[in-house]
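Thread: "does anyone have the structure for this chain?"

Original post by V.I.:
We have the sequence but no experimental structure in hand. Need at least a predicted one for the grant figures.
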Amino acid sequence: MTDECTSEPTFDLLLSGTVFLDIIFTGLPALPPPGVESWATGMGSSPGGIANLATAASRLGLHTSLAAAFGDDVYGEFCWRTLADQEGVDLSRSRSFPHWHSPVTVSISAEGDRTMVTHGHPAPVPSDEMIGRPPRSRAVMVDLDSENRIVGGDHRSWVDLARADGAKVFADVGWDDSGVWSRSVLDQLSVCDAFLPNAVEAMAYTGTDTPREALYALADLVPLAVVTNGVNGAMAIDSTTGEEAEVPSLRVEAIDPTGAGDVFGSAMVLGTLSGWPLADRLAFGAICSALAVQQFGGSLAAPGLGDVLDWWRVVRADTSSGAYAASLRRRYAFLDDLAPSAPVRDRRRAAATIARLSDLGTTP
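Reply from O.Q.:
Generated one for you, tokens below.
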């Protein structure tokens, strides 16, 4: 057996996917009608796509490595610099490709909704080729689909190789525009340790009528099944520990849901790797998501551990006698032990912008 196989994992989390330059316009009274120029009062720029997940994980203290293609244009350089220098994400498995321009998404938020326009091309090389033999990691997170399968191909995928080296496989799934919701996607759960779809996706893939029935169906297929349900919170079953838990969402004014699922997933990875009880993992995911949706813009909104602990200090100091405040104090009492016991750094939100004068953070 080689030294690489017997050594401790190099990273907590290994990711691969597409990095977009996200340009977010905010502060509009309504979505612009055709033929009209509208002025936004807020604008920000940040790495998006898989970078949302990488940033969220790194800010929570997970030593994160990202394998992605970057263009050699100013957008690609900005995204690379922001992830590597500001967010502390390892990019040793990423590559910059000459004459390949960076994917770009423009997002416009108004009236509690958003519209997006995206342009991009497939990466010059697939993830398996870019990563090669993956570095040893405690966990990987992947999106499942019916075309780019993580098992059953003509060669071993980077996910399969990472799993063979001891990584836990956390999986998510995207919206199926075709409406087929192929059951073959769920066949890949045989090599996954956790699956974290939202309620609509979970019900569509399992052919069930309620989020709870979908949860039970998924729990027969994967050790840790989690179903998120927006304002109704999240529920999960962990067959490895025999736990079943459900937590409500927090009472917050949500202004932008972009990246909330990535934040929740990162929190679940941290809690699982740290061996927390299932209810604490779900509660931690809920507060991280709640903090994120109160801000605009994907990775810009991802909270760090410092943001979570700041929130907890306010909640703990609240002497209100109401049932909701008392429920928060009971549900989040585990945060008292978080800072000294979990492998995390005292990180907070950071502002990423292609010019240093973004006013995203001051938008009303």
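V.I.: this helps a lot. The first strand starts at residue 11 and ends at 16.
O.Q.: and The mean pLDDT is 88.
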